[in-house]
Amino acid sequence: MSAVIQPAKAPGTADTPRETSGTRLAVRRFLRNRLAVAGLGVVLFFVLFCFVGPLVYSTDQTHTALDQVNLAPSGTHWLGTDAVGHDELGRLMYGGKVSLIVGLAAGALATVIGTLWGAVAGYAGGWIDAVMMRIVDAGIAIPALFILLVVSAITTPGLPGLILILGLVSWLVPSRLIRAETLTLKNRDYVLTLRAIGGTHARAILRHILPNSVSTIIVATTFQIADAILLVAYVSYLGLGVQPPATDWGGMLSAGLTAAYSGYWWLILPPGLAIILVVWAFNAIGDGLRDAFDVRGRG
Amino acid sequence: MTATQASAAPAAEPILELDDLDVVFTTESSKVPAVRGVSLQVRPGETLALVGESGSGKSTVALAAMGLLAGNARATGRAVIDGTDIVGADEAGLAALRGRTVSMVFQEPATALDPLTRIGKQIAEVIRNHGDVSAKDAAARAVDLLRRVGIPEPEKRAAAYPFQLSGGQRQRVVIAMAIANDPALLIADEPTTALDVTVQAEILDLLRRLAAETRTGVLLVTHNMGVVADFADRVAVMYQGRIVETGTVEDVLLRPSHDYTRRLLAAVPRLSVAEPDGRAPAGDPRPDDGSGGGDATAPVVELRDISVVFGRGKRAVHALDGVSLVVRPGETLGLVGESGSGKSTAARVALGLIPPTSGTVSLFGADLARTRSRARRALRSGIGVVLQDPVAALDARMTVGECVAEPLRVHRRGLSAQERRGRVEAVLDRVRLPRDIVRRAPGELSGGQRQRVSLARALVLEPRLLVADEPTSALDVSVQESVLKVITELQDELGFACLFVSHDLAVVQQFARRVAVMRAGRIEEQGLTGETLLHPETDYTRRLLAAVPVPDPVVQRGRRAERLATLAAGRTGAEA
């Protein structure tokens, strides 16, 4: 084929009003993505399971029952009991609550910090941008798990502390995404116009740049939540997360593994599967949203 | 040359024949018919111009004729090139045809070339695609082609990469590739729209010469009536996917029969090139603005000896070099120049968006560099801004009402929501937009409506200065006319001064009282519009004016002959 020839461009319909709004199109595109819809279903299921489930299937998760340890699944204990006699199904709900809360909150916190950091760096430009982004580079160079282990060794964080720490170690990637977005948005004509008539920088960022980055932010948030849930599982698995009698899926997995050679599969499979499913589901939702909004992905 | 142009041999079989061509695009939300029942013919040696406004379907016709429609388009009807029906032809058949029998020149030369391949090699590749030619012969022919399209030192230039060439030279290379296999039909889609007028004139000369030499049929797609007058033998006017009028260029441009064609032509701003029609020479064409001081009215904005340098050291670019401008209350200063002349940079310096490297900017009598940020913000409430791109001008996430109200939120914080709504509705009335538009999203509006919303936003604070950077360049002529009319009327009513940046000399001539012609970061000349654009003092302005094609084929033919004669004289003069 001749090199002069180029693929056809889209029809010149830029001037005709669109019949379907962008949001509606995005929703339709998302719903067409089967994996993403499945992911959404899985997340909804686990939310109901963890927050509504205990109302239907109530169990005692505070007192130990040493006469009923490591029981196999049965009619009274659907998923059996663990090493101190807690009902495993009830514990899965109880631990899932912690995992989901910490994951959602830490993911949201990380995105908020990252968004503000990235937007300010990208908007300011020049040496401010350079300094802020070198800080991000340095942060990314240190493995988050390493920081978590060090912090956990120094203090034993409660739930809010855990959220704060996880949020503080994982805002780096979203900040890069939002900075890139800001770099293109800050030279849009409406931002230039606002600056020319004397609008403040805060207004430019808060009213124009962030609202226009919202699809990137949402996509980043879903991936952050998935990462945070996995991170909670890591630290708890290593015994450094929430402390007993509270637990989360990572902690349950860790406790179960000590009994792995005794054949107590009901202590390992359920929390393990729950972690895998939820993390996969959030990633699938993120992928679906990314395609629906047509924004660039992670990292 | 004029003989071949005036009438093509009527006996010859058409090289391109479209018969009842329909094209429908399937989008995510609906089916959009883009072309409906289009029939046309191009004969060897003839140039047919397909004109129309954006969305009329003219580019789609050109793409359909090449079999290059996007995947979501469906064509029906017949499109025959040299005996082969393109509609329904398979990819192999099309590939044999493209580049050999028919080739295409696109609007943007920068993206039509492979940035990583030397231009000689790119041309040779086209030659070898369609014939059993040795690499050496192909290279030699590529050099020959470069010479034919007027690239100086073709042997050396063949080794250049596209980025080492100017936009005009790149378009010449694209044309060289298009004619490499002596096609019988050349389809040119807005081939000069991305180029400056002086370059456009050269490219049109080149295309005309090549078409005449080889009796190539040309399908020229364009929105520019001046280009049509300069280049075409016959014209087909498209409107909403249909051809509404076909005829010779004289008939269509001078004696249009269809109502739409008449309206379209009436909306085209015409550069008046006539000799003085009794207009009194208005005094000193170059008033000494900087040191005068005693002028009746203090300037609204004044740029004094402004230089702007981007970058440092060897790579420093002097975007502006010693520019001085003054805009006085109530008057319009037109800033014209070709791309890269620094006109937009000058406007941005006036807006305070680009700090000058040296020189001073005073806005409403205050030195911008010396005011503190809070005071500077207050000063800026007296400015309104309208920029070129109607899509980027409005934040798509806001409603029209929020967009227009934004300056009020910045500078009139005390207003209640109701007062604010009242001001927004009043200014929408002024720019002739319906009030219920406030709840709509910018994405639902047409380009012209969006520019009016921008204008409403610019005027909502009743500014003393309006800075308009190519406000109508992205609009169709009929829309441009209505937007310019609204600005003129409001200026009479509200009395704001206007700094009007444009590359379109005809628009500036209509619109501005004074004009400054810029070139390479300097002001070439400035003065009253009537003086400067009718009797320019510098060679550059004269050349610029001569290169603007006027939408009258008879007048344009004379202008072209005159321009070529001047160029030839200049050349022999330089050699002597």
Report on the architecture of this protein.
The complex is a heterodimer of chains A (299) and B (576). Chain A is mainly alpha-helical. Chain A contains 13 helices and no strands. In chain A, helix 4 packs across helix 11 and helix 4 packs across helix 12. Chain A is elongated and about 75 Å long. By secondary structure, chain B is α/β, with parallel strands linked by helices. Chain B has 4 domains: 203 residues, P-loop containing nucleotide triphosphate hydrolases (Rossmann fold, 3-Layer(aba) Sandwich); 78 residues, no CATH class; 172 residues, Rossmann fold; 72 residues, no CATH class. In chain B, strands 6-7-8-3-9-10 form a 6-stranded mixed β-sheet, with helices on both faces. Chain B has a 6-stranded mixed β-sheet with strand order 16-17-18-13-19-20, with helices on both faces. Classes of the chains: A mainly alpha (299), B alpha/beta (576). At the A-B interface, helix 1, helix 9 and helix 10 of A face helix 2, strand 6, helix 5, helix 8 and helix 15 of B.
What layout of secondary structure does this protein have?
The complex is a heterodimer of chains A (299) and B (576).
Chain A: H1 22-32, H2 34-51, H3 53-56, H4 88-124, H5 126-141, H6 144-154, H7 159-169, H8 172-185, H9 189-196, H10 201-212, H11 214-237, H12 249-257, H13 269-293
Helix pairs in contact in A: 1-13, 2-4, 2-13, 4-5, 4-7, 4-8, 4-11, 4-12, 5-8, 8-11, 9-10, 11-12, 11-13, 12-13
Chain B: H1 2-6, E1 16-26, E2 31-42, E3 47-51, H2 58-66, E4 73-81, E5 84-85, H3 91-97, E6 102-105, H4 109-112, H5 119-129, H6 135-148, H7 154-157, H8 167-178, E7 185-189, H9 197-214, E8 217-222, H10 225-231, E9 234-239, E10 242-248, H11 249-254, H12 259-267, H13 289-292, E11 301-310, E12 317-327, E13 332-337, H14 343-351, E14 358-363, E15 366-367, H15 373-380, E16 383-386, H16 400-411, H17 417-430, H18 447-459, E17 465-469, H19 477-494, E18 497-502, H20 505-511, E19 514-519, E20 522-528, H21 529-532, H22 539-547, H23 553-575
Parallel strand pairs in B: 3-8, 3-9, 6-7, 7-8, 13-18, 13-19, 16-17, 17-18
Antiparallel strand pairs in B: 1-2, 1-4, 4-5, 9-10, 11-12, 11-14, 14-15, 19-20
Subcellular location (chain B): Cell membrane
Keywords (chain B): ATP-binding, Cell membrane, Membrane, Nucleotide-binding, Transport
Protein name (chain B): Oligopeptide ABC transporter ATP-binding protein
